[in-house]
Amino acid sequence: MPSEPGDLRHSYLDRLECGRCSAGYDAAVWQGLCTCGSPLLARYDLDLAAKQVATDEIAGRPPTLWRYHEILPVLSADSVVSLGEGMTPLIPLPRFGAQLGISNLQIKDEGLLPTGSFKARGAAVGVSKARELGVRRIAMPTNGNAGAAWATYAARAGLESLIVMPVDAPAITRAECAVSGARLYLVDGLIGDAGAIVADAVARLGYADVSTLKEPYRIEGKKTMGLELFEQIGWRVPDVILYPTGGGVGLIGIWKALRECQALGWIGPKLPRLVAVQATGCAPIVRAFEEHADTSEPWPDARTIAFGITVPKALGDFLVLRAVGETGGCAIAVTDESILGAQQRLARTEGMFICPEGAACFAAAERLRQTGWLGQDDEVVVVNTGAGIKYPTTVDVQVPVLSKGATIPA
Q: Do 166 and 133 touch, CB atoms closer than 8 A?
């Protein structure tokens, strides 16, 4: 029970803090990057929050990500913009795990969220906070799913959105942006080229820049993946979490959730080993990890079937590398061939059609098991970040056509 009823709050948001230099910023106004050019992170009064909310109280709340509202940045319940996002299932994969030699393999399936990907989490929290702080117009570059999510939630909130994505982004995500009324543009280039166009629009036209890690609230939505996972397995942590890493916000968010849950007393001292998974066609984080560097260098000619992790240079790369290093994890790159193979094998073995980014994690798990980095009895959780049906071109479908009255061959 709360010990200080007068201190009950919807959120215990205290301030914003630079992830690199630790400079503090006022959370009562819309903020972008630190003056040093690094991302800002939301900080909470966790000592006070720990006195007011316990895990048994959370258990009785509605099954959305907003059940953790004390450590989310939206100050008032009236500001919440929601489509029912959160509490995605954690599903055991016994047959596929047996194939990989992992006896306790599970998937947290984010493909069941609104807009079909984990991006709905960041959009829900980011749009809610933007509206609470008086923002009316948002702009962002995207590889597809983030734009679809932010356009959808902006429409829900009554905000205007400007979305710029590479011309090779999945067509379905274009449709999601268009149907939601976004100002949508395509660029003949990569996400960095889209980002340059958005930066110009932000400077000239007065949009709020909600690019990856250029505002502090998307990561707060993403961290709820970790909060849910810990709750789903009894407020503890698995041995290993594999996460597909482009901009790295989800991995940073899970790491942030770990540290906050420990400070709140919701979990113990154990940390899961965090694994950043990339593709061999775009692996700047992996190269930096292997070279024991604090930051990554831009990846030339980035290209992979896992389009969502085609990020040649992540703004928060130093935070990803810190998260991996502090937890005793690693960074690993896998080929497009192994990604597509894992996607098909999982669907045939367990009936789950996942996105190529999620499939990359299963290809990585297989490699790590073969090298002995993963043990047979490790409790391993793969985060699948989106629904496979959003990437129809990853499956080559060749179906025989029968004439009328034909019979199926034996």
A: no
